Amino acid sequence: MMKNMNRLSFLLLLFALMTPSALSAEVQSVYSPNHDLCVNFDVNGGVPVYNVMFKGKQVIKDSRLGLDLISAKGSGKGTNFNNKVSIGQNSLMDGFTLTAVNYSSFDETWRPVWGEESEIRNHYNEMAVTLNQQEMGRYIIVRFRVYDDGLGFRYEFPLQDNLTYFVIKEERTQFAMPGDITAWWIGGDYDTQEYEYTRSRLSEIRGIFHSRITDNESQQQFSETGVQTSLLLKTDDGIYLNLHEAQLVDYPCMHLNLDDKNMVFESWLTPDAQGRKGYMQTPCSTPWRTIMVVDDARDMLASRLILNLNEPCKIEDTSWIKPVKYMGVWWELIAGKSTWHYTDEVPSVKLGETDYSHLKPNGKHGANNENVKRYIDFAADNGFDQVLVEGWNQGWEDWYGNSKDYVFDFVTPYPDFDIQMLNDYAHSKGIRLMMHHETSASTRNYERHLEEAYTLMNKLGYNSVKSGYVADILPRGENHYSQWIINHYQYCVEQAAKHHIMVNAHEAVRPTGLCRTWPNLIGNESARGTEYQAFGGTTPGHTAILPFTRLQGGPMDYTPGIFEMDLSKFAPNESKCLSTICGQLALYVTLYSPLQMAADLPENYARFMDAFQFIKDVPVDWQRSMYLEASPMEYITIARKDKNSDAWYLGGVTDTKPHDSVIKLDFLDKDRKYEATIYVDGKAADYKTNPQAYTITKKTVTNKTTLKLHSAPGGGFAVSIKPL
């Protein structure tokens, strides 16, 4: 009898999912697999509208869908390409009727090449609605995929006679909030996400944004309520929302503008040099617009919604893609101890033809043979994989701010950087050098040299590159996040894959899960990273918001591991890193990346080798991750199991307030003993006054052990747990 009842319940649920139109003559609905989340769709007076319910509460109120067009062209039935028929500057906003609704379900488990766990479940229910714009003789599809922790939807434009080419004026997707709720946000900007986050009510964004507006032109083009995604929100009854996008390909990056009278966000796409938002040709689709919905902050950290909405891996043989732990000639450049440029004079001839022998070296060039060998030796002695070297190539004397097209050639080294010798030396030590390609945002120049640059990397044995896009984009007038430049970033990743090269792109667009499809994209910056600790500091709590926002789309090359907080001790820099040593150790666990840097100088690590041991030990690829406690911008504690052993690693970070964590180790194997090495802030530790105080203890633990760990203001803790 019970089996029959279970079967009957299953059939009733299946019927509800497959035929909701039988339940309502107007509203179409689709539920998450666990039935907690529901998306309702309707066409109201010709306008597509949706809302979202979570456990019986409306978390997204009725919100409009559609796009505003500048122009659209169709091929015309029976005509050829040269006989296109213009159908005018019409919108895809209204005049729709619902003509078809298709439902399906999907459930798979896939294995990422690298990640926070070795397996990811992709389980959703789908509703695809076909909308016919009869007056124009064209149609679109809006596809919804609903998961237990959120949903994604996108616009699809099938190949059709009356819609072949169209230019987007603006996408008008709305996200109507359930009230004046709390948000963690950064202001709208077409070129950077390198800001600290603000926590405020939606009604307060306008005043705060106006008080902080800079001379940045791309920010000033936004309304005073423009914000970037990934945007974290929280209702007064404890429901967390996250607005973002997935699978950003051949389309401009989405920002959000808030109507703070009605509390409605509307999409705002990054414009091109002409102010247009996108050039489309059918068949095509937009990226997924994503809404995470959970009532436990830890569940948002565990969400794989963005990854799941991307296509499976397109690289057949991924054996060459390996997570990387690296060091490099970088922090000393950022802090000002050394320089990227070889001479203080400006060469007057074209790169590759310059004779630097008549130019006076400045004596501070960081990428010199002996200094690079010093990093290689330290990295090899301590088990690292690679050494990054910035400033190795000609062109740094006048690279920035001059709007130069031909700025670097990416193959010609400075005279004090023997590229062949250093590669041979690194390989003899079991180390690879990591290539650095700063483009100065001249995308045309980079594409001009890309094949030759990647070929040189192949010849010398480089397998990873850190690219950069500092400065205003060339072609002039384009933005870092416009459609043209989005396509450039994607082109570089795909070309790199052909050369078996892994890419770590800085100053590029924030990620949207494309690392599932192209796992050679092992890192991005796209947020305020450690370098800002050398530019005046970053407030503690910043690293406790990034996993909720920036990291939702993919890993970040945050470059942690600073041990000498007072930069004036080794460089002409009065800044201080606003953290403790244990707070820095924790980041190797709490800020996931398959690409992790030990960013400080070798001599600074040599003073604290007992603490440095955790950086040496901690893996960069995981079998399982558990999110033990979390409060956005306040504290996060995460436990992760090594992909290649039975060892576990814990990390916890806090903001400017001290925090006490009570951690049950019940995730450990039963009837097994482990040795825990515990790195915690010292009793008098404080990120302002005593950042280098720490204690290290060892103890035997089991799955019945509870650890009580104290984090100082701006601090944290790290624990390695290895089987005995």
Number of domains: 3
Spans where pLDDT lies below 50 across 5 or more residues: 1-24, 78-89
Helix content: 10-25%
Which whole number gives the mean pLDDT?
93
What is the strand content? 25-35%
Question: How many angstroms does the end-to-end distance come to?
Answer: 50 Å
Major beta sheet, specifics? 10 strands, antiparallel
Question: The CATH topology of the largest domain, please?
Answer: Beta-galactosidase, Chain A, domain 5
Query: How many strands appear in the DSSP assignment?
Result: 37
The CATH C-level class name of the largest domain:
Mainly Beta
How many whole angstroms does the radius of gyration measure?
Answer: 26 Å
Coarse shape: globular
Known CATH architecture of the largest domain: Distorted Sandwich
Number of helical elements:
13
Structural class: alpha+beta
Record the SSE blueprint.
Blueprint: H1 2-18, E1 28-31, E2 37-44, E3 47-54, E4 57-64, E5 67-74, E6 85-86, E7 96-110, E8 120-133, E9 138-147, E10 150-157, E11 165-171, E12 174-176, E13 182-185, E14 198-201, H2 205-212, H3 217-220, E15 226-228, E16 231-234, E17 240-246, E18 254-259, E19 264-269, E20 278-281, E21 284-285, E22 288-294, H4 297-302, H5 305-308, E23 324-329, H6 331-335, H7 369-381, E24 386-389, H8 419-428, E25 432-438, H9 443-460, E26 464-468, H10 483-498, E27 502-505, E28 521-524, H11 581-590, E29 595-597, H12 602-606, H13 609-617, E30 622-631, E31 635-642, E32 648-654, E33 659-664, E34 674-681, E35 694-701, E36 706-711, E37 716-723
Parallel strand pairs: 23-24, 23-29, 24-25, 25-26, 26-27, 27-28
Antiparallel strand pairs: 1-2, 2-3, 3-4, 5-6, 5-11, 7-8, 8-9, 9-10, 10-21, 10-22, 11-20, 12-19, 13-14, 13-16, 15-18, 16-17, 17-22, 18-19, 30-31, 31-32, 32-37, 33-36, 34-35, 34-37
